[in-house]
Amino acid sequence: GAVVSQHPSRVICKSGTSVKIECRSLDFQATTMFWYRQFPKQSLMLMATSNEGSKATYEQGVEKDKFLINHASLTLSTLTVTSAHPEDSSFYICSASVGSESSYNSPLHFGNGTRLTVT
Amino acid sequence: GENVEQHPSTLSVQEGDSAVIKCTYSDSASNYFPWYKQELGKGPQLIIDIRSNVGEKKDQRIAVTLNKTAKHFSLHITETQPEDSAVYFCAARRPRGGSNYKLTFGKGTLLTVNP
Are B31 and A105 within 8 A, CB to CB? Predict the structure, then answer.
């Protein structure tokens, strides 16, 4: 159980275009999902917290107009990289917790990531 | 905010030996400490976690210990196998409902198990 599916696994796009990444919780409902960015040989950097039915909370330094997050259902959150540039090339990973707000410290499960390359 | 330090950054062991990775955290309010294994090109996979009301937890060849007073926790892998080779991340998190309810990760440890 607790499977998080992320799509696509790899995407190559041209500079100036937008790319949408989907994150789905397959066998559980997730009121909160998290989006991370990871550079080669580095740790995971939290970009934003995605809350179902409300606006995402962005970490300091993350442009909310560039990284659009939508969490329209309890099983789907999307990250759209708008007007992508080569410096946006990275590994993007989503994660979700099992359970609702009343759950106490439920584990966080990760998707398999999306390798974005902007040419 | 929370700061998690992880050591060593790289660790090389012979197959069958034990591997130990250590982490320290700064926020005494943190009460949940998971460990993740990340293979190349994949997302992190939760391998074990421990909560602050427990001092040790074991799952087959993997164990985690927690010292709340010293604010450090460690991952122990016994009888290592080549398939254990990966990057391991520790993390810490405050209780849900409070501020900063998010995982703070260490910088990772590249474990190489040599056959």
Answer: yes
